[in-house]
């Protein structure tokens, strides 16, 4: 399994590039006075990711491709409660696969503003595109981030550090 | 109480020559290897103790926890009680003609529904997530069973523990197996939990009936569906023998941790832990039990999304109901009895109501329902009162949403919490059955034919 995960990681940048380019295309179509929302993605040691928008107030969270792969076929995604304010590390939901319920923890302190209801119908999306934050993707929730959340965000790993981290975690 | 000896018989039967009845402490939780057993037979409390161990133990520690529950049906975290459990049967079955009924419990781990009684031993291992492996500790239990002289036991592809079907002498061995223990897992940030329930000498008669819901053919549910397997008992009379065998095998698996003392957790002391009490209150809340139910749709007739044939569909109307987290989002009906006929309409009365908070059918005031019955354009429709009655009766009947039994089950959650609160606040450390009968109902096992069922 470790080797599969490694292959996937190698393949990922291109997948990312596709998503990014589509984003920049839509951005280019907007009037020039609007700031391009180049979000930054960071990861936790518990394998969650968060995209922070350029305005540093909103973000999108999900679980990493590495974690989705390790969990196996997901049969149900228990989504967070909309409107709930949570601290970093709080269990906000869970995913179930092969008889295991795995907690999803809040990567930073935040308020849940929107949840990806499509995942309730199609938990498989989380296996296929766990790190996609578009409609039909495997993102879990959209959040509002405050001052404390920003501080939490700074302490997380960027994708390079995260790749190193998961490489050392494999046995 | 005149019967302390009988009362304690079940608990003390040769369990643990080296046992230490003492509380879970910060010190015990910080040790590298820990073994606990529970004196309580309350399923909610035992799951809460387990959750406490999972949350509060040292992240590097490995823990074995063993317990036996009083009769209950335990469903997986993301399951639907209306499709998995025969709720009317659960609400009315009295165990061995005593006051005690089955509890309904939603556990925190994944997986399917199981029935517990005093003939089931629960084994649970908590360990660092880095070492997570779905079979490791099931194999530990298999080894323990082998050491007890039980033959043909192995772990299958579904991570269940199974036993080969015993063949008559001389015949060819078959690949058929019976399940003796399931597996379910829970993963948190740093920790993993693997638990299962082993059929030692369980009363298998009730099991399949309790896990067959009359509403299942009508409901298309998201979430997790149980997989049925043939089951059997391994035929160990005394749960304590199994406990000891598993403890020995756990020690053999982790020899570096020796010596490990076996800590026996007392009900009262467990209840005094604030974190355990918090977990217990959660498990005993209707919010957890009912409102964690994934979205489902109940339709009286086959639909494009759910084309299964229905065993006994109503003839005068078609009805479908959608609910998410036990809250009714939509009830649509279609009947020729409408004026004008053959229109799709909504029964607004049920909207936004929680299923488990609906009245019993007999308490329903038809007039409320009748007034709230509209087509989607808001125009009121005429409908015969009998048709409204029929629809409500069908929907709320024991075979469907079972609103009557639901109320009973919700009430028993409250009663259980109240009783445990009394114990926590210093009441006698007695089970309610012991209070009423002086003896735990299953300590005194009669022969089958002594019952008049």
- Structural category of chain B: alpha+beta
CATH fold group of chain A: OB fold (Dihydrolipoamide Acetyltransferase, E2P)
Largest sheet of chain B: 7 strands, mixed
The level-1 CATH class of chain A: Mainly Beta
CATH-level-2 architecture of chain A: Beta Barrel
CATH second-level architecture of the largest domain in chain B? 2-Layer Sandwich
Alpha-carbon distance between the two ends of chain A: 10 Å
Number of helices of chain A: 6
Judging from the principal axes of the Cα atoms, what is the shape of chain B? globular
Q: Report strand order across the widest sheet of chain A.
A: 5-8-9-3-2-1-10
Query: Main interface pair?
Result: A-B, 19 and 25 residues
Instruction: Give the radius of gyration of chain A.
Output: 16 Å
Task: State the order of secondary-structure elements of chain A, H for helix, E for strand.
Answer: HEEEHEEEEEHHEHEH
CATH H-level superfamily of chain A = RNA polymerase II/Efflux pump adaptor protein, barrel-sandwich hybrid domain
The residue fraction in helices of chain B comes out at 25-40%
Proportion of residues in β-strands of chain A: 25-35%
Radius of gyration of chain B, whole Å: 24 Å
| Range of strand content of chain B | 15-25%
Q: Poorly predicted ranges of chain A (pLDDT <50, ≥5 residues)?
A: 1-37
CATH superfamily of the largest domain in chain B: Bira Bifunctional Protein, Domain 2
Q: What is the CATH topology descriptor of the largest domain in chain B?
A: BirA Bifunctional Protein, domain 2
Modified residues (N6-lipoyllysine) (chain A): 99
Domain Lipoyl-binding (chain A): 58-144
Pfam families (chain A): GCV_H
InterPro entries (chain A): 2-oxoA_DH_lipoyl-BS, Biotin_lipoyl, GCV_H, GCV_H/Fam206, GCV_H_sub, Single_hybrid_motif
